[in-house]
Amino acid sequence: MLNGLLARKIGMTQIFEEDGTALPVTVLQSGPMTVVQKKTLDKDGCSHVQVGFEAIAERKVNKPIKGHFKAQTPTRFLREFEVENIDEVEVGQVFDVNLFAEGESIAVSGNSKGKGFTGVMKRHGFGGQPASHGHRGHRGTGSIGQCATPSRVFKGKKMHGRHGNSKVTQLGLKIVKIIEDEAIVLVKGAVPGPNGGLVTILKSNR
Question: What are the chain's domains?
Answer without folding.
Answer: 4-118+166-203 (2.40.30.10), 119-163 (no CATH)
